[in-house]
Amino acid sequence: MGKQPFVTLEEVERIVKEYPTPFHLYDEKGIRENARSVYEAFSWNKGFREYFAVKATPNPFLMQILHEEGCGCDCSSMTELQLSEAIGVTGEEIMFSSNDTPPEEFRKAAQLGAIINLDDITHIDIVERELGTLPETMSCRFNPGGFYKLSNGIMDNPGDSKYGMTEEQIFDAFRILKEKGVKHFGIHAFLVSNTVGNDYYPTLAATLFRLAVRLNEETGAHISFINLSGGVGIPYRPEETAADIAKIGQGVHEVYDHVLTAHGMDDVRIFTEMGRFMMGPYGCLITKAINEKHIYKEYIGVDACAANLMRPAMYGAYHHVTVLGKENAACDQEYDIVGSLCENNDKFAIDRMLPKIDMGDYLVIHDTGAHGFSMGYNYNGRLWSAELLKKEDGSIQLIRRAQEAKDYFATFDCFPVYEKLLN
Ligand SMILES: *Cc1c(COP(=O)(O)O)cnc(C)c1O
Questions:
Q1: What's the pLDDT at 1?
Q2: What local confidence, expressed as pLDDT, does residue 148 receive?
Q3: What's the pLDDT at 282?
Q4: Distance CA 252, CA 243 (A)
Q5: Low-confidence ranges of the chain (pLDDT < 50)
Q6: CB count, 10 Å around CB of 317?
Q7: Which domains does the chain have, with CATH numbers?
Q8: CA 196 / ligand 1 centre spacing (Å)
């Protein structure tokens, strides 16, 4: 039943001889197989590309694996652009989908030849000023406002979100860009996050395809791509069903034929910018039970904390927990699994039914492969963990060492007795 870790107790016992807990572990085989299924699902579209949302898991080793599977990089900051450049992803393999963008980041994106996806109409002038001239290919981010509803009732509130241009603005933006010499246009929107149903992309595609037809008719702009962005979810809970990417691709295909092909726009490339779907299930946080506490509730203290995985503390997000070696034991104990921060929301699980946990047991906190390590912080002076890769042949590779005190203190090099901190 439910979720099986991609690592066994025996493997973890071997790993910890070299790399102590806590650490994030990633599964190369799972990452590659999933990426291939994404390309398969959209193989009907000539020129399809997934731009991996780097912010989800900004690790060059993992970005490189995805690049080998054909993925580009979706960047939204200077350091994400630098990471992409470092692994040899440049030019149209970078989608720069930023917002509230510092001007120097537009310059860096342009220098790398990235596709610039404008979050706002005022950015046209800024990009022109920074670059001297506009690139031939440009994209605009759309925000339809109001509420966005899917057939399964999932809804979000774009009218309340800071992203994108209004409909009127995107028409104006296309006209202005066209006058200024832009030749190829893209449209982008990100309306609902973490959707596990199969109808988000097809519904969004219908909205964007219809918009594309009108933009083409009214401004004469050549729409060369439509970017469905991210938002495809993963089943964090064992009772949830995974999104079926083949069905999603099929659903987008049908809308494509119905709207775009019917209007003679059959050369439009489909782009995606998934983060969570590409990486979420293929990472986990391995941590050790180090304290138990019996007060008004039963607590298990582990050696990881919210600094290593913030989602439960920040959103109350569910992450499934497996006690390694006790995969088939009865879940007859109720625990709160907590970290050490002096913050009462530092709880990986609350009122969770699990097998009896003994000190020294290893816990797998599932689905930390996206928006996991990368949201980490250093509160309470807690340090970042290592990141490890389980390669296809089962061997383990260090892909980011654990942060040490000297790294944490490095920016105090303006402190008169900085050296004392390094002891
Ligand atoms: C965060 C983000 C993504 C990825 O979102 P997921 O939910 O991880 O798929 C893609 N594009 C943009 C612009 C984003 O901000």
A1: 55
A2: 85
A3: 98
A4: 14
A5: none
A6: 15
A7: 9-24+281-412 (2.40.37.10), 26-280 (3.20.20.10)
A8: 15
What lies within 8 Å, CB to CB, of 166 at 6+ separation is 143, 145
For ligand 1, the distance from its centroid to the CA atom of residue 333, given in whole angstroms, is 37
Please tell me the distance from the alpha carbon of residue 323 to that of residue 26, in angstroms, as a whole number.
18
pTM (whole model) above 0.85: yes
- Which pLDDT score, from 0 to 100, does residue 150 have? 83
User: Model confidence over 269-310: pLDDT tens digits?
Assistant: 999 999 999 999 999 999 999 999 999 999 999 999 999 999
Q: Among candidates 110, 61, 113, which has minimal Cα distance to 91?
A: 113
How many A from CA of 164 to the centre of ligand 1? 14
Q: What are phi and psi of 263, to 5 degrees?
A: -100, 20
Q: What residue ranges line ligand 1, CB within 6 angstroms?
A: 53, 55-56, 74, 97, 190, 193, 229-231, 273-277, 370
Provide the pLDDT for residue 398: 98
Inter-residue contact 235 to 319 (CB < 8 Å): no
Residue pair 97/188 in contact (Cβ under 8 Å)? The answer is yes
**Each residue of 103-121: b (16+ CB within 10 Å) or e?**
eebbebbbebebbbbbbbb
Joined tokens for residue 142? 């759309």
Q: What is the DSSP string of 354-388?
A: ESPP-TT-EEEE---TTTTGGG---GGGPPP-EEE
Cα-trace Rg, the chain: 23
pLDDT value of position 118: 98
d(CA 423, CA 413) in angstroms, rounded, equals: 14
Q: What is the dihedral of CA 276, 279, 282, 286, to 10 degrees?
A: -80
- Are 52 and 274 in contact by the 8 Å Cβ rule? The answer is yes
Please report the beta strands in 189-265, taking only residues with DSSP state E, as ranges in sequence order.
Answer: 222-227
Distance 287 CA to ligand 1 centre (A): 27
| SS percent in the chain: helix, strand, coil, step 5 | 35, 25, 40
Report DSSP letters for 267-305, one per residue.
TPEEEE--SHHHHGGGEEEEEEEEEEEESSSEEEEES--
Amino acid code (one letter) for 52: F
